[in-house]
Amino acid sequence: MRTTSVGVVRIPTKGPGDVAGLLGMIEQGEIDPKAILAILGKTEGNGGVNDFTREYAVAALCTALAPHVGLEPHRVEQRIAFVMSGGTEGVLSPHITVFTRKSIAQAPAGLADKRLSIGMAQTRDFLPEELGRSAQIEETAKAVVSAMADAGITEPKDVHFVQIKCPLLTSDRVEAASARGNTTVTTSAYSSMAYSRGASALGVAVALGEIEEGIRDQDVLRRFELFSKVASTSAGIELIHNVVIVLGNSASSASPFEIGHAVMHDAIDAAAVIEALASVGLKAGSTANTGRELVNIFAKAEASPNGNVRGFRHTMLEDTDISATRHARAAVGGLIGGLAGSGAVYVSGGAEHQGPPGGGPVAAIVRVADDSD
Amino acid sequence: MRTTSVGVVRIPTKGPGDVAGLLGMIEQGEIDPKAILAILGKTEGNGGVNDFTREYAVAALCTALAPHVGLEPHRVEQRIAFVMSGGTEGVLSPHITVFTRKSIAQAPAGLADKRLSIGMAQTRDFLPEELGRSAQIEETAKAVVSAMADAGITEPKDVHFVQIKCPLLTSDRVEAASARGNTTVTTSAYSSMAYSRGASALGVAVALGEIEEGIRDQDVLRRFELFSKVASTSAGIELIHNVVIVLGNSASSASPFEIGHAVMHDAIDAAAVIEALASVGLKAGSTANTGRELVNIFAKAEASPNGNVRGFRHTMLEDTDISATRHARAAVGGLIGGLAGSGAVYVSGGAEHQGPPGGGPVAAIVRVADDSD
Amino acid sequence: MRTTSVGVVRIPTKGPGDVAGLLGMIEQGEIDPKAILAILGKTEGNGGVNDFTREYAVAALCTALAPHVGLEPHRVEQRIAFVMSGGTEGVLSPHITVFTRKSIAQAPAGLADKRLSIGMAQTRDFLPEELGRSAQIEETAKAVVSAMADAGITEPKDVHFVQIKCPLLTSDRVEAASARGNTTVTTSAYSSMAYSRGASALGVAVALGEIEEGIRDQDVLRRFELFSKVASTSAGIELIHNVVIVLGNSASSASPFEIGHAVMHDAIDAAAVIEALASVGLKAGSTANTGRELVNIFAKAEASPNGNVRGFRHTMLEDTDISATRHARAAVGGLIGGLAGSGAVYVSGGAEHQGPPGGGPVAAIVRVADDSD
Amino acid sequence: MRTTSVGVVRIPTKGPGDVAGLLGMIEQGEIDPKAILAILGKTEGNGGVNDFTREYAVAALCTALAPHVGLEPHRVEQRIAFVMSGGTEGVLSPHITVFTRKSIAQAPAGLADKRLSIGMAQTRDFLPEELGRSAQIEETAKAVVSAMADAGITEPKDVHFVQIKCPLLTSDRVEAASARGNTTVTTSAYSSMAYSRGASALGVAVALGEIEEGIRDQDVLRRFELFSKVASTSAGIELIHNVVIVLGNSASSASPFEIGHAVMHDAIDAAAVIEALASVGLKAGSTANTGRELVNIFAKAEASPNGNVRGFRHTMLEDTDISATRHARAAVGGLIGGLAGSGAVYVSGGAEHQGPPGGGPVAAIVRVADDSD
């Protein structure tokens, strides 16, 4: 029986602090603020350690939504999950994607397929010395299971994208661990982002049975043959626990949207992008997709750790001027933007253990033009 | 009658000073050093004012080729045109493309179509105050006409790519003009690269009849509706005149290669890339291109000057951390790399007056598997 | 008769959104929020066009101060001037400096000298096509005169620092001017920052009689021999008018602080920094400044436009990886930080027409240990 | 008995490939090319992994010097040590310092003090997995002892600067180690530069008795209280062994130059710079240094690893746009440039185990105006 409906809206932004588009849709009744479960956004910072556009965007959204959900601004994050991915390199365009969920008394008739569903969960707070290690993997796996249940998804194959926001190390946090006599997995803030993303992705892979349990600390960022095909993890300075958002299709959802995915095997895997579009009934570059409209694409990008893409050397990992994550987002954003016909897509950097080395998951959400819609 | 044969080889490099691949092919007789007319390369610097990888690469090539062509190193540039485009962002891979030309006594039988031809010419040296202005436009137009004649190309429609290397302004050059009582078009070295590229491209458009004559100084970087569909211009600190290389198909060529092109209307114009590949008989992403093998793609990329790509805001022009040309190369390189199946493509930044605003030309060279080859 | 008292407090921040230090001082009664007139801050963005740390800091301060001044957050800026200078390169440390002013019934006895005073004024909103041109110069000059009056300063020699916040051009603003048939002084957002800063500084010079009136559009960013010795101007995307803050010494002030200044003639002018410190009774690098305590230093930095510093070439203007303003702030911040013994100093980039070419003003505020204090 | 004479000349360069200044001095007989022992240079790249200005400068110098020393270009490095430090941020100015040494039959009379001496040695080639670990420390210590002997320096206290050039890890080198079943100390090329610099500096400290022997792998980049007061180490992609250059004063030298040093305890330690100048009889900022002329200053800079400089937070370590080494060079270069009166000083980044955390050694070479000179 279909008991929930999930909505998805993509809204362009004019800056990290721009909430006018969202407020406009709330005022016009197109978005019910009380139904908002999660907001994923691309903001225009560097996507690195000192990217304050992420926390600025979250602060602006919390302040804007507070009166609409009847909470103090600093409590809004306890109700709505915000995942801001910094970095709109190249053609990538700043935007937010708003996910809503509400219970419905009666589902529209005639829905044959499983439809878009969303579920959420959080881990406990981590100690700095736990980041990038097995504690983070295990706690994340537990949270993924909880989020699947929350989404009404029972089978791993129906999970198409798991977005996780995870912490990073700062000088302060490294010092704190050190003061306790513990060493962190790295002392570099920038490197810690990779460790945290990697461990979180391995947690997804464990939860979905993509890899076996028993991953050890030393496997993180070393055994890249271990990965999840649907994990997308982003590190941010603004939190000290993991937030897990599961997106998939569920028989309990009466949503007018569907989600599908594919896996890019390298950063130039055009075929995988085309496959992801096809999985939800779309044809790349075509406008003649009768009855189905692309809402957004969610993908992860990374510089191939072996320094090559299909046999040709890339220079992303050895560039001291531009971080490898920025390079990778720009390139993959260019490819997906070209095939999707829009730069307002969610391409996030740092795909450690998210898809095969140098590749990453790519998911597409489509609006289905039901008669019943 | 076919009187010349033109060869093209793409060689990956391990760094800007790496000449081992080229020397290896010379030693094995695959390249006749005396037949080398031009070398186009992608080097891994920032592609900006202080990108010394371009002059380093040229210096290394001159030193390496000197004994093979019987010239002192500093005279090699008088014989061979070197065009190094800096910037291998994202998946772009450092490489050089070597063009050779030689007279032939007897052409292979059975060549029906026009085949790849190459011609070259140079302008006189420019004064700093002439850069980005009508003097540069007019001199460039004259040189394009000369280069077409050199290539044995009589009709503009057979010209598929015109690569130009042009100068930029430095503090010294601005001072020199100022000391003469003249002002340069800009005092910023970085901005001057755009002016020089733009004026050079307008010179191509004039020569090929793509626009009418009578362009004025103030049209440069302002009237972007004036452009060439085949011009590709790169600014470098190492020269003070323009070097023009015309690539096209000619009935006088007995080359085993063909060239074609299309025009990208924006940075995500996947259709144009597919069209360029189709123009030489290739199918995007396919390996089943029987009898035809892609040698390289040559394209220009730029950040749309109006700040949007298909209606969505991009952030390339307002990023103080990464120059817009690097963003654009990364994105377009990702798209072309995906459709061509390789990051070792020549994508060069700064497409002012080269293709429509935000777009640029894209040319493809293919090897045709003639029986006679 | 002394009728006002001016206070100055420097507060370190842990990030652009950090207001805890300020709120703590308000709670402890050390700062009266209703007396706050201006807050100058150094935030840790890139100081360029896309530096959102400035508007984020202002948003956070407005939200934090709103309940304390009895205004809605978006109205706080109408009462308090916020000038956030982005860029804490090298040893520079993020902080804010809070200026308060209140009327006093009875001045402390025994004040012989003029004491710190502050005054403010604003220009009207500018059209994009007015930026960097004579309209901006003239309106700024008027505002400086108003701000001096507001500060109770009657003689230009008592003005030691004039901080101005001015607008910049964005793609949108350039388009708007273009739609009106007007051209802006530049189409580059980054370049527009220099034009706006330069015109604003010339406005100060006109107001203080440092240069003659009648400056023309074409003098801006060309005739660098025209400059103010006390102007400090910063461009930001968040406003479309100029905000003028005059700091000087006044007989009407009963403040426990004094201000003095000197002019750096180039970026390595250690003597000028020492002179500025001496002008308020301090000795560089010494802790034995009995009775006088440095509060903060305010300075402007720029890359010498002729490409040299005392005869040696610098590379700041030709670096495509790091903007010249970041280079200059880092270097001058290192020098001032060394002589002042602290990196928490206000060194702002882009000193066009602020001090001689390649140099800039440097002012110091000191707390005087009066018995009466 | 004085048996050798050492010369030092500082020559500005116009670019990484500029050898005209050096060749001019050779032609004019001011430098005897056969006496050149070492050339230390500042080049204008990013100082990071992909800074090709270093190898370009070395290639240009080898090509230029080859005919003068009667060797093939690729053999010049076997005779002359080249240490190019990339990064001329802020006021730092590209230049080279040429050290010559020759035997003399008869020393000038009246030399009372020890004078400048130079000695060199090299380690064996390292395996990638040895970098940043005890093997590199031990081999470096041995080479320092050899270089002291070569310089005719018998006491550690007479050693004032030990410049080392050391390797870094690249993707290829990490792969090579991995293929042998070994792991490298890091997989990041950028991080490997810090490890290599740190281990090399610890080697100096061991050789000079500044710390005790028995340093373990895990001490590198962790126990920062272990350091050398005179080590200066630079990592470069162009070599796979360490080159050690010892500079000090020796009774066996009849050089007209002297060297002295001090230790900066943090990046704003103006007192230490003044002390270093005083150690060779110079007064900071003064031109009245009768009879003594500054030739150059050699210093190391780094971002304080604890995130603070004298209690104020810096942002260098958490900046994803500009590497911390660039920030630190810019700031320390500004301070030293100000106190020395010139930006043409050798300030090199990455001071791991070179001076106390956040600080570094600073040495000055002065020309003494002997009657006998």
Automatic annotation (TrEMBL), chains A, B, C, D:
Binding-site positions, Mg(2+) = 302, 351, 354-356, 359
Pfam families attached to this UniProt entry: Amido_AtzD_TrzD
Fetch the InterPro entries from UniProt: AtzD/Barbiturase, AtzD/Barbiturase_RUA, AtzD/Barbiturase_RUB, AtzD/Barbiturase_RUC
Query: Where is substrate annotated to bind?
Result: 54, 85-86, 197, 234-235, 329, 348-349
> Hey, where's the site called Important for substrate specificity on this chain?
325
- Spell out the Gene3D superfamilies in the cross-references: Cyanuric acid hydrolase/Barbituras, RU C, Cyanuric acid hydrolase/Barbiturase, RU A, Cyanuric acid hydrolase/Barbiturase, RU B
Name of protein: Cyanuric acid amidohydrolase
Q: State the organism named in the record.
A: Bradyrhizobium iriomotense
